[in-house]
Design a protein that fits this description.
The structure is a single chain. This protein has helices spanning 44-57, 68-74, 76-89, 121-124, 126-149, 155-158, 164-173; strands at 5-11, 20-26, 60-66, 97-101, 114-118. It is of the alpha/beta class and 189 residues long.
């Protein structure tokens, strides 16, 4: 039997609003998925179509998050690591090997036999690409829903990223309860 590899990636480290998401995916080598790549290189429609295939064909997958309060309390890096650990803990199978997109690893010694950080891993390792897609799709869906809860910030359009429009709306309205108050420009309000 082959070693189970879980790919892990996040979505939403840079926004000023809402949770950071992470996903972990163990792909089935007997059921390859064509077209996997970094979620940022795919259209929304293509990401959603691939997300369906990933959920149907992967041996295991899990999506988790850390909310804006955890981000403000821990810092974005530690909150991202927390979301990644939660995603790995949510897998129905225990991976032997974990590959995480980026240049830093969360503490994983208790969750797998071997872990590695892979710079640009979402472009190199299909399981990380799959995790990138699931995390991005899940976060985007939540932000569209939160746009209805917090109208006036246009979250469904910019997904919480610090666009000129979002910054102007923040100056006009002030932050919502789910804005990341530890992030500049909100930190010094």
């Amino acid at each position: 039997m082959h070693s189970l590899l879980a790919g892990v990636d996040e979505a939403g480290r840079g926004p000023l609003f809402g949770p950071v998401y992470a996903a972990a995916v163990i792909l089935d080598p007997q059921r390859p998925i064509v077209g996997l790549r970094d979620s940022k290189q795919l259209s929304e429609a293509r990401r959603e179509a691939l997300a369906v295939q990933i959920r149907e064909h992967a041996l295991a997958w899990s999506v988790a998050w850390a909310d804006s309060e955890e981000i403000d309390a821990l810092n974005i890096l530690q909150a991202t690591f927390l979301a990644m650990r939660r995603a790995l803990l949510g897998l129905r199978l225990r991976p032997q090997h974990v590959s995480v997109d980026g240049n830093r690893l969360p503490p994983l010694a208790d969750l797998c036999d071997r872990a590695e950080a892979v710079v640009k891993g979402d472009a190199k390792i299909p399981a990380i690409s799959a995790a990138s897609i699931l995390a991005k799709c899940a976060r985007d869906r939540v932000l569209v829903g939160l746009d209805l809860v917090y109208p006036g910030y246009r979250l469904g359009e910019h997904k919480g990223y610090p666009t000129a429009e979002h910054l102007a709306l923040l100056r006009e309205r002030g932050p919502s309860p789910l804005h990341r108050l530890s992030f500049a420009p909100l930190r010094n309000r």
